[in-house]
Design a protein that fits this description.
mainly alpha, 5 helices, elongated
Amino acid sequence: MNSKKAASTEPVTTGETKKRRYLSAEKKFQIYLETQRPDQPVGEILRREGMFSTDLARIRQQVREGALQRLSAKPGRKVELVSAEAHEKLKADLEAKERALADLAVELTILRKKTSGGSWDR
């Protein structure tokens, strides 16, 4: 009998590892809305979805942050954030175009001087 007790306290490993489950934003919001309904028991929803209460707390926090961020946005044109790499690329493109424009301005000045007296007014 003692050998049975000792054998039953050892952890049983089946060789399977539990895979992390990723939920889409739509699914998270659906779960959030379901748990907000007063006629639905939260525990039942969590069991059905295979989630823990901490998962639900995290989803509620994300919904709150998203709502606050969206509601705090001022009306008008949206400010688009650009990555540092894209900013550097745009900066380099602008410098190249400015150099090309300066070269063309010099060329135009030279051409004006070569044409009869350097004046376009004639």
